[in-house]
What does this fold into?
Amino acid sequence: MKELGDNLYLIEGNHYKLRRGLGAPNSLIVKDDKEFIVIDPGVTTYQLKKFKKLEKAGYLTLNKISKIFLSHHHWDHSLLASYFQKRFGSKIYCHPLEKEGVEDGNIIYNLYWESFEILEREIKPFPDWGIKLVLWFMWGNYEPMKVNEIFMEGDLLSANEKIQVVELPGHSPGMVGFYFPESRVFYLSDLFDTEFGIAMDMNNPFSNYDCALNSLHKILNFDVDVLIPGHGEAIYGRDYCMIYTNKKIEEAIEIRDKLLNLLGQKKWKFIEIVKAIIPKPFDVTKIYLARHFIYVLLVDIWKKEGLKIEKRGRRNLVYR
It folds into this structure.
């Protein structure tokens, strides 16, 4: 745990390490008088152990977690909220565009499966069994919960530390970040990560390139000393926060331009496009996230400019 202010604490998560809790995000604890607010509590087994250790150390009282703020509906950020609500009556808050996904994982499971059909039948980036397995793992056993309150852009939530809601769509339509003006801390959720992220976290069918790019630009308008991504290490120092954000913006534009250029040169298999754009060294997680990112960009190009598909065995060739 890291102390970021008098009443603000960071619980560092763990990104894609199977033995220590797959996908556990960074979480924040805000002390609100005699109660506590938790932002993105994460997934049960791994993150819950951390909360219990903090309680033993005297930093937190689990039955006094009165509010849970969710940046978006994805299981790795929201699943533990159901536990706190059922066990301690914690109230859950989220953006209205994320409410349906938070309350019913089965709805999201079905929507994700249908949305993959946009280009799935043509480009075939993933085998059907692979998509079904991933979706089942993420949402097949999602614990239902009730959203008690919603928040919107600009809302200042009451706490010892002021919390400003900032809409950061791109990774998901209603994703928000939380800005702490007194501590100059900005929790960005999954706009990008600092461990395996490829410019921006666009790793699901509802991701949108233009929205994510606009959200990245939005960060530059805030006075920030600490940037906290949903996954990976926090970024410290006002100057470095701005340098890092500008670098992410440049990377996002560069990757799209490079993709457009490649598509105009020849016919490509999907994995060939990914490896031509994403720098080495490759690893399983990086390729997995990169495939999603390039897939979202291809959908964006397909909608705006069109793509051509040529049948070639089990895998199709994509070009402009």
